[in-house]
């Protein structure tokens, strides 16, 4: 009787990291001015924190949505819900700090609701990567991967949004593409031997686990409009809500139909239903606040659903067999390809953006198109300078996705190689997708169908 | 081995419909003025879309609530959660268009959050009908039924609310009664042969499926105050929240007690717990913004719970055996009877509504009671004219439910007959309530308990 | 074949109580002025009820969170979700009335959203007590216990908050400590015989039931910031959100690590994951609006997670074996000890609270520190008088937890003795943790793992 779950040194390392976080929180953080006591006796009652409902919706997506979506494996439900919580709880703290380092005042990160919204969104990228690797790495490897990824995520996000003024309100470029290709690159670095480049024995659903996965999937579907609209206000926010809703609805119908048409005996496939129905939320992400017209959202959703199902049916098996890139949840089909499509859509819509259509909001939506004379306050420096034309902005959108993919892939390969170091226990083929290795289970040997 | 799930032509038809929707969105829709860019550099930050949290609560009800409530069948969980999503995704698009056709400006439906709230609510009526037919018709039949139903729903809603100025803020008349009796009429049109007029072999719960159903039931319970208060503002909204809360609480206690008292060995029955506890939300729907006093809500909830449990225990089995009307989820007991009760309550409270009690809000709550001189702007035309007395308004409330029932029943019978056309594959008795017919399942033959 | 579930007289008693509630609602309640029709034709559209999103989050915690957290037992899922709903539906009505009796105007309790938020929070204390006793008492005993507990809860809450001006925004003292020790005292009064002072045969999880429990646990985790911030506004509210978020994140990481370190073979334990991850929300509750600095929240969460896991691993088994105090859900480790810790933290932070740090908000946060000259309107009378120093306020915080514990323990013992009266059927050892005793189940004898 060996104890394959044991990795005391790994858990001690994580405890140490938590203590380091504690110290850094002590030294480097403080309250945003909005959170400080105000003098004068103005009535605070009825004061509303405008983004709080949006935050809570996103919070449900991160902790219930991702966690339960990953319960589809028949014998990995403790890990799906539990490790999702563990990884996210570690990463949100790290994301608050890492993102904060790019925006300190006098050496202090001034915390407010915005920071925890940002931390939740950053953590989504790690959970996407986790989907690619689900059941194939140890909890310790997963958590270390998350810490590496947050560093690169925060850097790339700052580069894209602050320095390059890329438009990406729904995070398709910075979150979905980044998370998916980072995870796939890690997966490639950890690729199995040729004889093991096939789906594991436990890499499938049971009847019950598939229904648990719908809890996650449907909550992601429901709250995606909040994810895509949390970072804008006013008319942009309401457009983002409407577009995401329409894109998801059209995507869902397309997913079901295409799933039936490409499947054996024309039966519906729960993998498609759980995942591809969400691709419309990803694919509309980078253009969600633009004037894409309602029909634009419907078109994007339709394309995304079809693309995603086809990816699950034809591409993923090939990637595993030929490329030895495992992708347990198929994040390439749900997050990867739809996000790249979204970036391309964003270049197209930026290309045709005019002052006539957007009015003054052209410059708040595309801040890179402001004249330098229109900048307020301290002179920001952005890559390539202000005063871009629509065509130039389109170019920057494409540059944004290219740089993001490069950072994600190189960073993922590097991270994957690090996780192969002998310091880390590697999972054996017969330990994959199996809670019993790391969890006390009521019935260590029994597998339900 | 035939392939009973195959219905390529049906799925192709649905894809065609989705493309037609796409074209109509392109031609007939645009943004509401609130969603258009605004000129001038007013700060949009902190701007709140007031109904967005309500929308998200309703969205949870439609996609998690209804979807999981229907998972109670032991072998129909993929269909419950999956087809609920499919049907709803198709119907919300169609509802946006159909409802929009009644409110176009220069041939354009101007979209905003209100339209997707309305679309979600309209879709609830289809999901209620689906409950009556759950497991008894094919996915294609279900979707076609939904398309028919939305046409009639939108027409009846416009007739009741705009032309007849019926009071029905919680949608008991236009949504619950309509959806329930439409579904029951379809069920009657598709009634089984005499020997099959009994519960199917798989028409029951497993221990696990019953707990899944509680996910749906409890989320419906929790967010019902949002459903009932989404279309009003100010004091009316807060009253609607309070009344729904009290009615549901009283209904729930009554449901448990009556369930134990009428059941075998005085044991509790999960069917009652999952469904009848919600009847209080339906029964208070049409009066939810009126001055019914808190005790009015408690009384209504108590009556609704008892009525609903008694319906499940004694009426539904009779309807199936004698009338050959199948009602898998018992929507007659959860939505049908409580909604008719709500309409009657609305007539009673309208009858006694006075200017003394309501002040100026009498005319916003009961717009038909305005003097014609009080109409603002363009002169609306309503059936029977403005300036109704309380007694006349009460009459219109009763007329409203009668017309609604007529449209629902005639429309449902017609739709049911259409679904019996030989173009549609009909489910055989032994194919009912069985995911395996339409889904790839991990274990096509095994049935859990 | 006897019918152990039968208790007609109990259910009739509950129906009688529901009718009494109905009468009392009729006589003693009315609308708050905010819910009454307003004259003048001000536009109500866009009016927002500020606390409604918070209410709905708390509502999810009470009905989904607590209900599903308790589904972890392999054969008690109907009771967990069903009785949670039953108990809560009864107790919210009673809590509206009992809490209202302390705040009547001319003999009328004027109802608004605040009352149902308060009722939900009060009910949390009963559900916590239910956790200690889960599966060990009959539904009738449970409901009667809830009615007793609400009386004491409302009295103690009034005493602490209104008369003693204790700071306890997150309810750690008034809700968590009260509910936990009340439940444990009931459990002690009903303690088993020596030979039965061990975990029951069915007192454990199945693979599926553990995942259901995660639905509840994660929703509690997600919405805890709303629970802890619902009763404050402005900067205090945003601090409460931030602190709860940080405390839970740090607590979760600590929980996983300590769980692995203290468990057999260093495997993770779902009991800890489901429960101890939440202890950070409890432990920060009484100080959640104070200026504890972000690092204070991280420290508190870290301490709470470790304390809670250690409690589950070492203390609870001892309490059962030596003290014969059963605690099915381990509420002592999730609610009891962390809440006492929170009270101590509140005394410490009160001790060091200064006008320099808090500005004018010192007197809204610690109303007992106001000079009597600063009281507005009618002169309130508080225990010990106004004008407390920081040190005195710290003393009152400690006094608050001591009095709360005394009331909870004495009240719980008394309640437990009442539940042992021969009028009540007592569960036998072999009837414990078993739905089949009180529910119609699809398979009365089969037990899944």
Automatic annotation (TrEMBL), chains A, B, C:
Q: Which GO terms describe its molecular function?
A: ammonium channel activity
Naming one, the record's GO cellular component terms include: plasma membrane
Q: Give me the segments passing through the membrane.
A: 12-32, 52-69, 76-96, 142-161, 173-192, 204-224, 244-263, 298-315, 336-354, 396-419
Residues in the signal sequence: none
User: What superkingdom heads the lineage?
Assistant: Eukaryota
One GO term under biological process is: ammonium homeostasis
Q: What InterPro entries does the annotation carry?
A: Ammonium/urea_transptr, NH4_transpt_AmtB-like_dom, RhesusRHD
Provide the alphabetized UniProt keywords.
Membrane, Transmembrane, Transmembrane helix
* Topology term for the membrane: Multi-pass membrane protein
Any idea where this protein resides?
Answer: Membrane
Q: Which residues form the Ammonium transporter AmtB-like domain?
A: 51-436
User: Which family, according to UniProt?
Assistant: Belongs to the ammonium transporter (TC 2.A.49) family. Rh subfamily.
Name it: CLUMA_CG012501, isoform A
Record organism:
Clunio marinus
């Amino acid at each position: 009787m060996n104890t394959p779950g044991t990795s005391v040194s790994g858990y001690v390392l994580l405890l140490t990291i938590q203590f380091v976080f504690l110290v850094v929180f002590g030294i480097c953080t403080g309250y945003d001015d909005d959170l400080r006591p105000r003098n004068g006796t103005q009535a605070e009652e009825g004061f509303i924190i405008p983004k709080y409902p949006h935050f809570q919706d996103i919070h449900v997506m991160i902790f219930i949505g991702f966690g339960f979506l990953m319960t589809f494996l028949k014998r990995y439900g403790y890990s799906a819900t539990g490790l999702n919580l563990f990884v996210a709880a570690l990463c949100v703290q790290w994301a608050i700090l890492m993102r904060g380092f790019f925006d300190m005042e006098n050496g202090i990160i001034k915390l407010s609701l915005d920071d925890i919204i940002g931390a939740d969104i950053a953590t989504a990228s790690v959970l996407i990567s986790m989907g690619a690797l689900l059941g194939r790495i140890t909890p310790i490897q997963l958590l270390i991967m998350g810490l590496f990824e947050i560093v690169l995520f925060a850097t790339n996000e700052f580069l894209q949004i602050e320095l390059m003024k890329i438009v990406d309100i729904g995070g398709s470029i910075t979150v979905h593409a980044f998370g998916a290709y980072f995870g796939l690159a890690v997966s490639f670095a950890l690729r199995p031997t040729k004889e093991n480049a096939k789906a594991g024995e436990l890499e499938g659903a049971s009847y019950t686990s598939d229904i648990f996965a719908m809890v996650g999937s449907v909550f992601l579907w429901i709250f995606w409009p909040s994810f895509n609209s949390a970072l804008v206000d006013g008319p942009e926010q309401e457009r983002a809500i409407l577009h995401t809703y329409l894109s998801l609805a059209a995507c869902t119908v397309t997913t079901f139909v295409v799933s039936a048409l490409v499947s054996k005996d024309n039966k519906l496939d729960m993998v498609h239903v759980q995942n591809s129905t969400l691709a419309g939320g990803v694919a509309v992400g980078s253009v969600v606040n633009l004037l894409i017209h309602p029909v634009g959202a419907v078109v994007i959703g339709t394309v995304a659903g079809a693309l995603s199902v086809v990816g699950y049916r034809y591409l993923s098996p090939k990637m595993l067999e030929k490329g030895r890139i495992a992708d347990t949840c198929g994040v390439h089909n749900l997050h990867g390809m739809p996000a790249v499509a979204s970036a391309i859509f964003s270049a197209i819509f930026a290309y045709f953006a005019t002052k006539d259509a957007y009015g003054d909001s052209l410059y708040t939506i595309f801040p890179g198109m402001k004249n330098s004379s229109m900048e307020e306050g301290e002179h920001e420096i952005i890559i390539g300078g202000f005063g871009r034309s629509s065509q130039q902005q389109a170019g920057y959108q494409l540059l944004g996705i290219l740089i993001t993919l490069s950072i994600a892939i190189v960073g993922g390969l590097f991270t994957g190689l690090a996780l192969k170091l002998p310091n880390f226990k590697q999972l054996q083929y017969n330990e994959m997708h199996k809670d019993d290795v790391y969890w006390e289970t009521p019935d260590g040997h029994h597998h339900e169908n």
